[in-house]
Prior knowledge:
The N and C termini lie far apart (83 Å). It is built from 3 helices and no strands. By secondary structure, the chain is an all-alpha fold. The longest helix has 20 residues, at 31-50.
Amino acid sequence: MKTFNFVGSHLSTRQRQMLEQQQRVKAFMNPVLNDQVQQVIEVLEARKEQGVKPEKQWFTVSDTRGTVSIAEWMGF
């Protein structure tokens, strides 16, 4: 016979809401999407174990300083 001790396992209101939301999302997701998400998570975990840095999602397009004149702003 197994016994379980749930001392200290009380969830806060926010944690309970997050858990309920996760359960609703899991029930809503279709199997194909679920498989794709699982594959992406596995790849990310493998990259993390190998020490590969995540891909840069944000990068600087231009780095200009100063005040733009009204003529430049209007396209003249």
